Amino acid sequence: MLVGTLAFQTYAGVLGVELGRRPLITQDADFAQFWGVSQNISESIDSPLKILRGVDETFRQVPHISDPFVSTRYRNGRDYLVDFLTPNRGLPVTVPRPERYAVHKLIVAVDRVNQAKAVKDIEQAAILIDALAARRPTELAEAWKTAWKTGKQWRRKLESGRARLPDEVQETLKSAIKGE
Q1: pTM higher than 0.85 for the full model?
Q2: Rounded to whole angstroms, what are the CA distances from 62 to 14, 65, 73, 152?
Q3: Which of 69, 86, 89, 114 is the most buried (most CB within 10 A)?
Q4: Residue 153 burial (CB count, 10 A)
Q5: Could you give the number of structural domains in the chain?
Q6: 125 phi and psi angles, rounded to 5 deg
Q7: Are 165 and 118 in contact (CB under 8 A)?
Q8: What range defines the domain where residue 130 resides?
Q9: Are residues 28 and 90 in the same domain?
Q10: Computed from CA positions of residues 106, 107, 108, 113, in that sequence, does the dihedral angle turn out positive or negative?
């Protein structure tokens, strides 16, 4: 599953909105891989390196710090990175639903050490919340409510993330959640 800014870029077409320039800038690609599911259904695809070299032959493995035989990061000749956030054995690409991505960005922004990434998380969440409130308010409300029901820590992070949104987006989100 493609996550991060490259996943965010796909939502312009999905939602029919312009996303702006700053939240689209990235120097890497992040993937979440659910290898266990693929293995259990006997799915087999080429290795990530083989697929990446099909796009750009300069891609190389970057060995993992704790295990030089495991690679979850790949770099090309222009220093563009592709990271797998979980162990990988293949490369099917999908993106999260935009409403879940928006809520996720509110949550992860709270714990980011890198403040530039936290700001970008909030910017991306705000853009998606505005678009979703206008086009898919029910889905946005359901994603928020699902995350809210997950537990006390999630509620704390959701509140903190929401407080970082611009005032008008906070109101938009509140209205969507209430079903107004």
Answers
A1: no
A2: 33, 9, 5, 38
A3: 89
A4: 9
A5: 2
A6: -60, -45
A7: no
A8: 97-178
A9: yes
A10: positive
